[in-house]
Design goal:
It contains 20 helices and 13 strands. The protein is mainly alpha-helical. The strands form six sheets. It has a three-stranded antiparallel β-sheet with strand order 3-6-9. Strands 1-2 form a two-stranded parallel ribbon. Strand 4 and strand 5 form a beta hairpin. It binds one RNA strand of 75 nucleotides through strand 5, strand 8, helix 7, strand 13 and helix 12.
RNA sequence: GGUUCCUUGGUCAAGCGGCUAAGACGUCGCCCUCUCACGGCGAAAACGGGAGUUCGAUUCUCCCAGGAACUACCA
């Protein structure tokens, strides 16, 4: 058996869709698991849809996710070029299309747009069209004359109306389709560019791809590919169709879902590795119970036979959970790089931001979660006096008032403003009063934070905001909220 | 409309003829605790329906229902 070679073949039309990312990931994993090669090919055959800079997005995304191609536009192997528009210039597709015409498997079509338009009909609000093989019946002379006259043409695949075509998919098994369902799809467009379908087959063969990994949405066009391979007498590659990734409504993930692309997710504060990890588990499951996998670990464990058939909903909740796991496990310096800018958005004062970052590390799932958690460091929010009511510690506003009044002079006299020292002070006071520490600490925490929930205890907060600010906030509590 | 595919808890999913039908997220409870979170423990929650095949079907076959994808000179 020859070496496994897979490819990721995106169109440069914008951001990297998560469905595409998963296809790329599975392609990569299949190749790497088998010790094979992973290739990148750019399918820029639609000049209208091409988006400036999209190729860079693709390349950058692959860098960031670690899906590094062994061959591609930037590191060509022996089967280049790796960009289809360049292959068009080399005349590759036209050459093979003409071979097909010789064999009677394809034909020139000169139909006008108007004529094609007349073939469309609307069923259930959907516009559907099936070509009627009008130009198949043109005589050789007519074709020659049309070509000589410079009439625009396309080349279509010639699929018989009778019989069936079947193909094998590794995941879905044998799939058989009646030929009458198969449209005479266009192979070469009137601008001389190949369509995706044709370029794909030609390139996968020419470039030695052994396993074709792609989305389930292409499952129904696969039989047409088989006909092409057979017509050429080429070996059919192994097909691996991945199940669809859907939104909560069970529809194919689209731009409007807001998290449809890798970049969207990163923008929202997700970590690259977490996205890769989560996406790997959409449609595939490892053998054990483990869910957290680095890319190398995925390579080691990935067995494409365990890819499932049913579509998977992209669950933001679980994505967030997994991201939280990655943040918790993240090397602190790297964490700081992403956490600090987020903290600076709300904390402008010269406080110990590293300490604040430490506090929130186990409490966030995505980086923007930080904002609402640490805003009180910057400024004491307006709060409700009822916060001083706490059932567990049996704290009331009245009791809080006494605690804070008692503590104010004690804390004013306190020199060592570190967490441990402050905690000792509060504990000592509690013992002297014969109450639980929590009873004392609750009102202090409310006073210095103004919030019901904080990412740290009272004394940690005091340490960070400092003595002066702490005392000031306690005074405000006494004067404004407990009076 | 046609074709193709899919159908285990709300979600991701194990299961590949015999099980009290894993596990994870989420939800809820308890513990830990200077609030919350982390961590620990626990609970509720599923085989779409109907026929077969079989001693026995979540697992095999068929039908139905539901869902999805495709049906472009887009990929």
């Amino acid at each position: 058996m020859s070496e496994v070679k897979t490819r990721f073949a995106p169109s440069p039309t914008g951001r990297m869709h998560v469905g595409n990312l998963r296809t790329a990931l599975y392609s990569y994993l299949i190749a790497k698991h088998a010790g094979g090669k992973f290739m990148l090919r750019i399918e820029d055959t639609d000049q209208n849809r091409e988006v400036e800079g999209a190729v860079d997005i693709i390349k950058r995304t692959m860098q960031e996710t670690g899906l590094i191609p062994d061959e591609g536009p930037d590191n060509p192997g022996t089967v280049g070029p790796y960009v289809q528009s360049e292959r068009v210039k080399a005349g590759i597709y036209m050459k093979y299309a003409k071979q097909l015409i010789e064999k009677g498997e394809a034909y020139y079509c000169f139909c006008t747009e108007e004529r094609l338009q007349s073939l469309h009909r609307v069923v259930d609000g959907k516009d559907i069209m099936m070509y009627d093989k009008h130009c198949l019946h043109l005589s050789r002379e007519e074709v020659e004359a049309n070509l000589k006259a410079g009439k625009p043409f396309v080349i279509r695949q010639n699929v018989p109306n009778e019989g069936t075509t079947k193909f094998e998919d590794e995941i879905y098994g044998t799939i058989e389709v009646p030929n009458s369902e198969l449209d005479d799809m266009i192979l070469i467009k009137s601008d001389g560019f190949p369509t995706y379908n044709f370029a794909n087959v030609v390139d996968d063969h020419l470039m030695g791809v052994t396993h074709v990994v792609r989305g389930n949405e292409y499952l129904s066009s696969a039989p047409k590919y088989n006909r092409l391979y057979n017509a050429f007498g080429w070996e059919v590659p192994v097909y691996v169709h991945c199940p669809l990734i859907t939104d909560e409504q069970h529809h194919k993930l689209s731009k409007r879902s807001g998290h449809s692309s890798f970049e969207d997710l990163i923008d929202q504060g997700f970590v690259e590795e977490a996205v890769v990890n989560y996406v790997a588990l959409l449609g595939w499951s490892p053998e054990g119970d483990r869910e957290i996998f680095s890319l190398p670990e995925l390579v080691e464990n990935f067995d494409y036979h365990h890819i499932s058939k049913s579509p998977a909903v992209f669950d933001m909740k679980k994505m967030r959970w997994m991201n939280g796991e990655y943040i918790k496990a993240m090397d602190f310096d790297r964490y700081l790089e992403r956490a600090l800018p987020e903290i600076r958005k709300v904390v402008k004062k010269d406080l110990n931001l590293t300490k604040i970052a430490e506090m929130v590390k186990t409490r966030i799932e995505i980086f923007p979660d930080i904002d609402d958690m640490v805003d009180f460091f910057e400024e004491l929010p307006d709060y409700d006096g009822s916060l001083y009511q706490n059932k567990k510690w049996k704290v009331t506003p009245e009791k809080s008032k006494k605690v804070l009044s008692d503590l104010l002079p004690v804390l004013s006299a306190q020199e060592d403003w570190t967490n441990d020292a402050l905690y000792a002070v509060l504990k000592e006071y509690s013992q002297a009063e014969g109450v639980k520490p929590g009873f004392t600490i609750w009102p202090v925490r409310i006073a210095v934070s103004g919030k019901q929930v904080t990412p740290a205890g009272a004394t940690e907060i005091m340490e960070v905001i400092g003595k002066e600010e702490s005392l000031s906030r306690i005074r405000i509590a006494l004067e404004k909220y407990l009076n």
